[in-house]
C-alpha cells in the first residue's frame, strides 16, 4: 500500500528528529526527573482528593474547601508536567504502577484524623519541592529554561502551600 509522501506505512516506525538545542541524553535525563515530579504530584493529588472526600471534625468546612483548591491546582500541574515531558520527546508515565515506582510519597492507608491529614500533606508538598530541586542540576547544565521555569513555579507553589498547612498545625 502506498501512502502520500511523508506518511509512513503503519508497520514502519519512524522517529522524528527533535532539535530544540538540548541533546537527547539531556532530554532523557530531564524527562526522567520530571517523571518523578509527575509521580509525586499525582500521588499528592490523589492523597489530597482522598482527604477532601473524607475529612471530618471541627475544621471540616475550611479543610474541605482548602483541599479542593489544592487538588484542583495539582490536577492542572500534572498535565503541565506531562506536557513538558512530551515536549522533550519522551513518554510521560501514566499508570498507578509507574507512579508508585517513581514517587517519593508513600500511600497512606485508611482515613487519618484531620490534623494528621494536614501533617501528611505538609510532608507531601515538601517531598515535591525536594524532587523539583533535585532536577535543577541537569536542567541548568542543558540550559533548559522552560523546564527551569516550570520547576521554579512548582517549588514556589508547594513551599507556600506547605507553609500555609503548617500554620494550621500551630497552637
TrEMBL record:
One short Pfam name that applies is Ferritin
Q: Does the keyword Phosphoprotein apply?
A: no
Q: Which residues form a coiled coil?
A: none
Q: Which InterPro entries match?
A: DPS_DNA-bd, DPS_DNA-bd_CS, Ferritin-like, Ferritin-like_SF, Ferritin_DPS_dom
Q: Which residues form the Ferritin/DPS domain?
A: 32-171
What molecular functions are annotated in GO for this chain?
DNA binding; ferric iron binding; oxidoreductase activity, acting on metal ions
User: Keywords on this record?
Assistant: DNA-binding
Checking Gene3D superfamilies in the record gives: 1.20.1260.10
Say which domain of life the source belongs to: Bacteria
Q: Does the keyword Lipid biosynthesis apply?
A: no
> What family is it from?
Belongs to the Dps family.
**What is the protein's given name?**
Starvation-inducible DNA-binding protein
Q: Which species is this UniProt entry from?
A: Prosthecobacter fusiformis
